[in-house]
């Protein structure tokens, strides 16, 4: 057991007994970790806002490589991101990013590129125009999958490497575009519009923070369906993003403000 310092983003928090909490955080140096924060539920808490979801914090803890839970000694806020997300839509998209990491990432393994991607996405949720938030979330979904080894293939057939069909045939199960021959043997193949395919390519290759500048929001529903189908096929724990479903439900309520969100099936 060693005393370790690491920065991370708080994903979620659960009560433990009457006075403590279990904190899930994605850290730069150790990947996904769970801490026991003794006394964190007491008022005032010695941890302040450092354990609030969406806070980027610095943690000092007793690290045990063979344990699921690590005892938290100290925590201090580096960036209280959640306090800057006053708009409901911004908060929902930021929560969706946390939810995606919690669902798709496993284990205590450092992944600096993924951590930086999460920070860039949360910054985009705080700073991008509201109408661009859906594009930021889509870019994060695709680029997170890519960092985990499931990058959709768009340059050649995802099955046999041959030139792709001119009809823009995408197989969520195979993880990319396919040729006409493979499409005839595959189930669940969808035909993409030229605009949706261009958006997918840009979302995969451009910085997350710039997403709102290049995706055609009018094709958002089509892109969202393809991305969600792709994630469901390759990540067993992905069942959609609850935070966005809640937001859509609120927006469907009479009198609620309208936001531009691509809708899945």
Quick description:
By secondary structure, this protein is an alpha+beta fold.
Structure, described:
The chain is α+β, with helices and mostly antiparallel strands and 265 residues long. It folds into two domains: 2-82, Nucleic acid-binding proteins (OB fold (Dihydrolipoamide Acetyltransferase, E2P)); 85-152 and 186-251, de novo design (two linked rop proteins), CATH 1.20.1440. It is 34% helix and 22% strand. It has helices spanning 88-104, 112-127, 133-147, 180-185, 194-205, 220-234, 242-251, and strands spanning 2-16, 20-27, 31-37, 55-63, 70-80, 169-171, 176-177, 190-191. The strands form two sheets. Strands 1-2-3-5-4 form a five-stranded mixed barrel. A three-stranded antiparallel beta sheet has the order 7-6-8, with no helix packed on it. It is elongated.
């Amino acid at each position: 057991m060693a005393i370790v310092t690491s920065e991370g983003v708080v994903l979620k928090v659960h009560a433990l007994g009457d006075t403590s909490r279990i904190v899930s955080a994605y850290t730069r140096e150790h990947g996904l970790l769970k801490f026991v924060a003794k006394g964190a539920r007491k008022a005032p808490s010695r941890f302040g806002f450092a354990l609030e979801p969406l806070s980027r914090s610095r943690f000092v803890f007793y690290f045990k490589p063979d344990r699921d839970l690590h005892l938290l000694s100290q925590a201090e806020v580096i960036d209280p991101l959640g306090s800057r997300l006053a708009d409901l839509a911004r908060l929902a998209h930021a929560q969706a990013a946390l939810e995606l990491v919690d669902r798709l990432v496993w284990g205590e393994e450092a992944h600096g590129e993924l951590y930086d991607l999460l920070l860039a996405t949360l910054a985009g949720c705080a700073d991008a125009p509201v109408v661009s938030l859906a594009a930021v979330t889509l870019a994060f979904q695709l680029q997170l999958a890519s960092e985990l080894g499931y990058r959709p293939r768009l340059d050649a057939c995802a099955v046999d490497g041959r030139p792709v069909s001119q009809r823009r045939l995408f197989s969520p199960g195979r993880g990319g575009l396919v040729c006409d021959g493979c499409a005839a043997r595959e189930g669940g193949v969808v035909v993409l519009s030229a605009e949706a395919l261009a958006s997918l390519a840009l979302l995969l290759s451009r910085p997350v923070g710039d997403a709102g500048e290049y995706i055609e929001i009018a094709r958002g529903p089509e892109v969202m369906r393809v991305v969600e189908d792709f994630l469901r096929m390759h990540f067993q724990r992905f069942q959609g993003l609850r935070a966005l479903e809640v937001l859509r439900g609120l927006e469907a309520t009479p009198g609620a403000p309208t936001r531009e969100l691509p809708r899945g099936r």
